[in-house]
Amino acid sequence: MQRPRRGEKIANNRRTLLCYTLITFALGTTTFACNAKYTEMIWIDLRDAPGGPTALIENAMHFRINFVAISWQAPLLILLQTLYRCFVIWNWARQVMIPMIALYIGMIVVAIVILVQAGSGAIFYDIDTAPAYLAFQAMLTILYTILVTKRLLVIRGQMKQALVGYDSSTYDTIILMLVESAVSYTVFIIIFMVAFAVDSNSLSTLCFLSINQIQVSRLSASLMLASFLQKK
Predict the structure, then answer these.
(1) What is the pLDDT of residues 120-146, one digit of tens each?
(2) Is the pLDDT of residue 168 over 50?
(3) Beta-carbon neighbour count of residue 174 at 10 Å?
(4) What pLDDT does residue 24 have?
């Protein structure tokens, strides 16, 4: 954390951001480690178990390591940070906050239901609420991208009108990163949902084990937007 200059006090949001970053990193690392370990178990350690890798994939929730991976997911915290950035750029407008918060709360409720069902011994791929959780993620991602992109385009237009020859390359880069990360993540979520719908356990497992890597692109775009807002 950067120290303040000339004896100034550390801003409260710096400490909050530091704690948020550490918690998110810890949760993401734990989830990634659990997913990597179970992948090793499927294809190496337990490949000769009755039913082979297919049975291990279908009965993933029978292993505590996968329940930990689901329980310690970081996406909810990552989305909380993106919501904050969206509210800031829209100056805490109620017409923006209400639908975004409603979707976020719905996502939390569905996540709790999934955890309860998974903890009761249900087969993960038989949990009907899992696609609903993915749908909430997709809707929240699309809405966030539309709102932030629209606001940045408006601000960019105002800057061009106010300053002749204004270089808008920074705005263009951020908008492009937001749209690219949202498109890749949304397509990934749709594939995940289709895999659930057609009972393709192998594809669903592949998506489940890869979701952290896909989220990195979203987080990088969000961090770039955060850095840009702090300079303004």
Answers:
(1) 767 767 777 888 888 888 898 889 889
(2) yes
(3) 20
(4) 75
What element of type H or E holds 229? helix 201-231
Over 80: is that where the pLDDT of 9 sits? no
- In a 10 Å sphere around its CB, with 0-12 CB exposed, 13-18 middle and 19+ buried, how is residue 199 labelled? exposed
Q: What is the pTM of this model?
A: 0.73
Among 200, 192, 194, which Cα is nearest to 54's? 200
Q: 130-162 vs 75-89: helix axis angle to the nearest 10?
A: 30
Q: With bands split at pLDDT 50, 70 and 90, how would you rate the model's confidence at 72?
A: low
CB 185 within 8 A of CB 218: yes
Task: Name the 3-class secondary structure at 88.
Answer: helix
As a whole number of angstroms, the distance between CA 13 and CA 16 comes to 5
* 53 and 42 Cβ atoms separated by less than 8 Å: yes
Rounded CA-CA distance 192/83 in Å is: 23
Contact, 179 vs 141, CB < 8 A?
A: no
Tokens for 20, please give them.
Answer: 């948020």
For residue 86, give Cα distances in angstroms to 42, 99, 166, 174, 227: 40, 12, 24, 14, 13
CA atoms within 13 A on the CB side of 218: 29
DSSP line for 152-164: HHHHHHHHHHHST
Mean pLDDT of 182-202: 82
